[in-house]
Amino acid sequence: RFEFADAWDSAALLDLDPAFTAIYLDVGGISGADGLFEALGLVRQLTCAYKSSLRCIVVKSRCLRDHSLVYKNSDEFLR
Q: CB pairs under 8 A, 24+ apart, for 67-75?
């Protein structure tokens, strides 16, 4: 089953299905430090709301992608 909804409205999401196993987020239009914190806050909110059933959250977010580029793989340090 596939649904479209406002991810910030947890009550509406829980009304749609209290046991989603996968959530796909498109966090668009938010950038910079505020966008990073907003995206991480939303992922945390959804993880808490669906902690008993959720298997994965897939996030499409430029600010999260840009932030992840700052980190290095541990293999680079272990050589």
A: 67/36
pTM above 0.85, yes or no: no
Sign of CA dihedral 74, 75, 76, 77: positive
User: Which value, in Å, is the radius of gyration of the alpha carbons in the chain?
Assistant: 15
Please count the other Cβ atoms lying within 10 Å of the Cβ belonging to residue 38.
17
The per-residue pLDDT for range 27-67, each reduced to its tens digit, is: 877 666 678 888 899 999 999 999 999 999 999 988 888 88
Token pair in block for residue 14: 């829980």
Among the listed residues 12, 26, 22, 32, the one whose alpha carbon sits nearest the alpha carbon of residue 57: 22
Give yes or no for a contact between 63 and 35, defined as CB atoms under 8 angstroms apart.
yes
